[in-house]
Design brief:
It holds the Pfam family Peripla_BP_2. Residues 1-23 form the signal peptide. InterPro entries: ABC_Transporter_SBP (IPR050902), ABC_transptr_periplasmic_BD (IPR002491), Vit_B12_bind_prot (IPR054828). One of its GO terms (biological process) is cellular response to iron ion. The protein is an alpha/beta fold. The chain folds into 2 domains: 25-157, 3-Layer(aba) Sandwich (Rossmann fold); 173-294, Rossmann fold (3-Layer(aba) Sandwich), CATH 3.40.50.1980. 40% of the residues lie in helices and 13% in strands. The protein has 10 helices and 10 strands. A 4-stranded parallel β-sheet has the order 4-3-5-6, with helices on both faces.
């Protein structure tokens, strides 16, 4: 019995170590279908897109961020993170110098060659490519798994899904409204039906008049807008201020959106970033489309 007692403690230690080592290993499939393997939850994370920086904080892993790209400005504490270039041109030497155990990247924004080079260096890279609103909650949960902050991430994802469901219940069955979403003026750009913003438009009972275009963010001509004759024009711009070029559409008074004064603005960070705050933008858009419905001539 004494011998058995002497043997049990080291046995328990070995079993415990083996169990913890096995349990700590993480395998997550990213949005490109690639498996990201970590031996343990990430402790040093680099973000290659502003929306990913925001998602990492929302998932409870902000304290593990060691660097981010330019324009990673939310929450405010993200502004203090070391910068490693832009999302279109990250400084890979600066990334490597941070000794990350995980890099979180954006397929549509980061050059594929940079992702490949980081993986060739043995750095795990999770590639994000959200195309609908459900992807926001999914990404929160995935980051939570990778960082070991699952409880916080799951709570944030649940809250996002509940708020999304409430908006859908309130607005999705409303009378359709034709919407032209304008990303930029010169060149004139919009979004197609596969873009996340189109999902927001649908959530509010709207219809993207350029949903059938092939490119995710295509360039179009003024003539195309005149032919589509949207009931609403929504512009983004660069910041909190309404862009001057939104009101330039008043040069075409025959447009329904102009005749009914349905020229609306939503700050881009509230609708163009794939984060929980996109529902703030959705709430504004839903209210704007309701305004357009009220401005319809009496039948």
């Amino acid at each position: 019995m004494t011998a058995l007692r002497r043997f049990l403690p080291p046995l328990f230690v070995l079993l415990a170590l083996g169990h913890n080592a096995f349990a700590a290993a993480i395998d997550v499939v990213d949005d490109m279908g690639d498996t990201v393997h970590l031996d343990a939850p990430a402790r040093r994370i680099v973000s290659l897109a502003p929306h990913l920086t925001e998602l990492i904080y929302a998932a409870g892993a902000g304290e593990r961020l060691v660097a981010a790209v330019e324009y990673s400005d939310y929450p405010p504490k993200a502004k203090a993170l070391p910068r490693i270039g832009s999302y279109t041109n990250a400084d890979l030497e600066a990334v490597v110098a941070q000794h990350p155990d995980l890099v979180v990247s954006w397929r549509s924004g980061n050059p594929p060659t940079q992702i490949e080079r980081l993986r060739a260096l043995g750095i795990p890279v999770y590639v994000n490519e959200p195309r609908d609103l459900d992807a926001v909650a999914h990404t929160l949960r995935q980051i939570g798994r990778l960082a070991g902050t699952g409880a916080v991430a799951d709570a944030a994802a649940d809250a996002f899904e509940a708020r999304q469901a409430a908006l859908r219940t309130r607005y999705a069955s409303q009378a359709p409204v034709g919407v032209f979403y304008q990303i930029w003026d010169q060149p004139l750009m919009t979004i197609n039906g596969q873009h996340l913003i189109s999902a927001v438009i649908r959530l509010c009972g709207g219809r993207n008049v350029f949903a059938d275009l092939d490119l995710l963010a295509p360039k179009i001509g003024v003539e195309s807008v005149l032919v589509a004759d949207p009931e609403v024009i929504v512009a983004s711009g660069m910041g909190e201020a309404r862009p001057e070029w939104l009101d330039a559409w008043r040069r075409w008074p025959q447009l329904t959106a102009v005749k009914r004064d349905n020229l609306f603005f939503i700050p881009p960070e509230l609708i163009q970033r794939h984060t929980p705050r996109i529902l703030d933008g959705a709430t504004r858009l839903c209210e704007q489309l309701d305004t357009a419905r009220r401005r319809r001539p009496a039948q």
